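Hi R.,

As promised, here are both runs. First protein below:
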Amino acid sequence: MRIAYHLGVHCTDEDRLVRTLHRNADMLAEQGIEVPAPERYRNLIRDTAIQLKGRVAPTETQAIVLDQIMDAEVADRMVLSWENFLAFPAWAVKGQLYRTGGDRMRAICNIFPEIEAEFFIGLRNPATYLPDLLRKQRGRPWAEFIEGTDPLDLRWSDLILNLLERNPGVPLTVWADEDTPLIWPEVLQAVADHPDGLPLSGRDDLLSGLMTADGLRRMEVYLESHPPQTPSQRRRVVSAFLDKFAEPTRLETEIDVPGWTAETIATLTETYERDLAYIATLPGVQMITP
């Protein structure tokens, strides 16, 4: 068995991935893919990792934890998803992004040391990610939240390198959150590793939050009558319908950070795009792109 860990990050997925896959749990189970409900494992894994303090779990502990998570006696793959795997929101920015993420995932993987792991993570432009993360801080002022960290120094590649270094041999799949509406079926398939053509229910739910109801209905009718032959064909269709039927207010992101200017946002965005290009070159990393 392999375990696919979806790591978030905060302010990207909001549990859409695990909700979609869990909605199709019975269909996926027929393919040997276990998608347990999040409430069965999130606190359990956190508490077990704390008790082990990074040590490898004894065989008895592994069996007990798996028995509490899984329904099936055996499975080829299990999907576990939690945006707090790497850190809770208050600890996500401490000099760098998710500084202890690599060690946390090593401790979690040590709960199941005999099971191969894979990591999956969506990244987001710090220009929009940081303001949204601040909103999760329950009224903390910006200065207290950022604690002297220079946003211009933040690089997602530091987190990716840390994950690779602390978890050698674990494959890592990355995508940009900004691309998710166009690549959502590919993301779902990468995480679940389900067969091509499996008709997942709800795979277009993400678009329903970005497109008018009429536009979504028209797109679904078009896709049904003109089935795309490749993922790139589907992306072109989705892009065209988004251009025509997008809800402008749902695509806008409010950026209100003390001291930030248009130049700050442009610099953060340019740095992020260069960082993504660098991440795509790293050994052990697969990048999902439109």
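And here is the second one, sequence first, then its structure tokens:
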Amino acid sequence: MADTGDIGIGSIIRFNGELMQIMEYQHRTPGNLRAFYQAKMKNLINGKQMENRFRSGELVEVVRVEYRQMQYIYAEGDFAVVMDNTNFEQIHIPISLFGEQGRFLKEGMEVKISFEEDTPIIAEAPTFIESQITYTEPGMKGDTATNTLKKATLDTGTEISVPLFFNEGDWVKIDTRTGNYVERIKK
């Protein structure tokens, strides 16, 4: 058990029997009332968000989480097969744990998996990936003056928006948190 002052953004707690991750956490002292902590939490099982007020000094159950770097091998139905690089053990985890980042997974990519005991609860792809454009409308030289974007399909099968001057075969750096291109890469 921990005190409400010991937890912060990113902490994982057990609240009403459910695993919750703290998304926003603020200490508030309104006027002449008692201080409290306002928390916005995300349920790690079903993804629903909720808010709760904790009294200062209230005890909460902090869940001990083990983080492991693993290698993404391939997708099998609704599951991703990942391998532990230390003992080469392969496990199946739901692709839904990756959320929107799951569309950027490539074979051989290092991913971060969080476990509570032996149960995977959070999966994260790398923040930035490099990917090649497999299809887009042809670009024209000089189309750099405006911020106009066009659709492009990546080697992962995902469609993103890129500037007009990008062509098939170009490499781009992508932020997997937002799905936006960051920059063009020379390879």
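A quick note on the second one: The CA atoms of residues 128 and 175 lie 5 Å apart. Let me know what you think.

Best,
J.
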